[in-house]
Amino acid sequence: MKKIGIITSGGDSPGMNACLRAVVRTAIHYNLEVVGFYRGYEGIIDNKHCVLTTTSVSGIIQRGGTILKTARSERFRTKDGIKTAAKNLKALGIEGLVIIGGDGSFRGAIELSKEINIPIIGCAGTIDNDLVGTDFTIGYDTAINTVVEAVDKIRDTAESHDRVFVIEVMGRDAGLIALRSAIASGAEALIVPELKNDIESLLKKIKNWRSSKSSKIVIVAEGDEFGGAYKVGDLIKKHCPEFDIRVTILGHIQRGGNPTCMERVNASLVGFNSIKALLSGHKNEMMGIVDKKITYTPFEKAVKHIDKLNEDLVQMIEILSS
Ligand code: F6P
Fold first, then answer.
1. What would the pLDDT profile of 213-240 be if each residue is shown by its tens digit?
2. Confidence (pTM)
3. 210 C-alpha vs ligand 1 centroid, how far in Å?
4. How far is the CA of 114 from the centre of ligand 1 (A)?
């Protein structure tokens, strides 16, 4: 193998740059040429690329976002788009591909591998942490730290006014950001798509919150069954008019910012090992880290969403926020 391609794809996440840097520098160490395509699959379809050198990835380990830019490519969902991408990769002599992205990107990889027979390795990159086969996805640690910092600030004002705050965090199909950040911020309640949220018992719980508790925080994952934090806030307002309620949507601040130390190390580890994986014959697998060990999961399995939350963690919120 002499020449590989790389893309960052789907929603950006802090740590993608650290991973890219590791991929490029490891590849160069093993005498591989690295071609970076801009804006994910869009760049492969449009032949927008550049050769990445050691210096192209200088000074980026600490930066959020992705210097290669990213996109959720609609064209890559079509047969034509995939065929054009495969044709362009062949013409450029690309012999292996590294994709830093989430489930949509890996679904794309499955389709691409039907059109071109080159090994593809995925580095799990999404703030949602919802891929099967890894304890950690690039961006998750930074995102949960961003959420905790924001909730701590909201807690200050909630305390001062004796208010209930309903805070919406990201996670279109997954409540993992909500779960971890709820524990770390001492939230009183959690609403996530993975749990059957019984609004009756939530309202009962809210009514029973001890009066000495001056602030109450409800963390809602955006993919919840009630339709988001505003809907949950309205429900609480209707049934518990005695509470002064405010709603905050944290939004895209969760996707940006400097990656945490853990993020940079894990992203580098995954990027470094993706090249070793390509060179040792792995193909069409997502690199992950499970119990501190590098793991490989076939794309087909990785894209199946984690639909169960750790019950201990869920119970902890109940007991510790009493
Ligand atoms: O997939 C990561 C994620 O941040 C989700 O949690 C969120 O629903 C989505 O991306 C938002 O994506 P965008 O605003 O880029 O369309």
1. 889 999 999 988 889 999 999 999 999 9
2. 0.96
3. 36
4. 27
